[in-house]
Amino acid sequence: MMLETLFSWSKKKEVESGQPVIRFGRYSDNNKPIGKVEKWNEAEAQFKEKNFYQSIATFFDYLADDEADNVTHVQTGNSGTFSFYQGSKIIRGFYNDKTLNAEVALAEMPVPSVPVMRRLLEMNFSLYYTRYAINGNKLCMMFDSDIETANPSKLYYGLKELATKADKQDDLLVQDFTSLLPVDTDHITQIPDTEKEVKFAFLQKWIKETLDLIETVDADKFSGGIAYMLLALAYRIDFLVLPEGKLLLNIERIVDIYFRKDDRPVSEKNQEMVEEFMKLQARTKEEVFPHLFRSRYTFSIVMPQAHKTIADAIYNANQNIAWYKENKHYEIAALISEYGIAYCQYSYSLPRPVTEFFQLFMMINYPDFFQALGYSNAYYDKEKKTFDQEAILKAIEEIQANWNPKYPELKMRTEKLKFDNMMSFNQSFTGEVEFLNLETRS
């Protein structure tokens, strides 16, 4: 579930807290309550008993995120209609006594284009459940199934492929082919210009600070540290600025430069990432603002992982701090710790308490950003370089208390946190996230 404010169990609580209602982070469907999980098991049992229409109704009940208001389903006898959101797209469908069909519009094509149709034909080969198609003057994606084979797993993975591919491809197609026009985007909710101004300003600020820091060290000798800094920057923008559309594609492409499997040295990849960040820095408000908006989601674009995978990523990053710490490159060391946990937030569908700990981590590291957005919590004073330990410990306790019903053993060892400086805090805080017990209540 996308975070709106820290410790937000409901929008009512957020409003009552006096804090802004602002979303951070990518959507995760890895946090369904126990009741929703039981709906999945119920839908599978109904399908096995050949109660196909009841199984479909229960499946959409499972899929619906009540807080996000992302799914609509209406059933009448052996037929029904449904729709759900995925970023900039709305997927609509229906079913009857024979088939279930779903469709999503990608773009409008006023004039037939051979290059566009060739692109769609080539992309069809990478799909498992769905297909690209043309419906009138619109480019679409479609999914269908016989009712008697529409089990919950097929519906989940088929509709997920349809939704996630469509949400990405609509922007790519409109970007790559100027003859195409955006379509079906009226549901997008704009954010206030004041919020856009803050996000734009800090997008510029963080890029400048990172590139300036990189200029102070040797590009070859510090290639590993530079890579950490650039990736941490990309993940920070992804989580806090929450870019959509082309802006999100730019961030994903920067990350891909580093992780692309080729034989280039790290220093060369770093230089390419720097160049891409400089292009991003050159963007005007008019170019950035259209890609800052609110979206509703139904599927996460990344997969859940065992906590050991998260722990290993954090451990490996923190292990690489030692040299920078010994040589007094404390700022770089702090960013390496940020990279470890931010990589997990970007790459995996995390349990929500881990994401809430990550947001607290970011509020401590970047208090000026949150204060500019209207948050009153000042966990760290940048001028005095002091931590509000009492407020931080209280925030940790709230996260643990809120999630105790689902994760009864969730307990951060706060006595091990170090408040000497930001580097020590980051290393100790992420180290304690590494050792969290996320066993669910049986």
Rg calc: 23 Å
In percent, how helical is the residue content? 40-55%
The secondary-structure element order is HHHEEEEHEEHEHHHHHEHHHHHEEHH
What's the total number of strands?
Answer: 10
Number of self-contained structural domains = 2
Distance between the termini: 22 Å
Structural features, described:
There is one protein chain. This protein is α+β, with helices and mostly antiparallel strands. The chain has two domains: 26-176, 2-Layer Sandwich (Yope Regulator, Chain: A); 191-434, no CATH class. It has helices at 11-17, 34-48, 52-63, 114-124, 152-176, 193-215, 223-241, 245-259, 266-281, 285-288, 307-319, 322-326, 330-347, 352-365, 367-372, 389-403, 422-434; strands at 71-76, 79-86, 89-95, 99-108, 131-135, 138-146, 189-190, 293-294, 380-381, 386-387. A six-stranded antiparallel β-sheet has the order 1-2-3-4-6-5. A hairpin with a 2-residue loop joins strand 5 and strand 6 (138-146). Helix 6 (193-215) packs antiparallel against helix 7, helix 7 (223-241) crosses helix 13 and helix 14 runs antiparallel to helix 16 (389-403). The protein is globular and about 70 Å long.
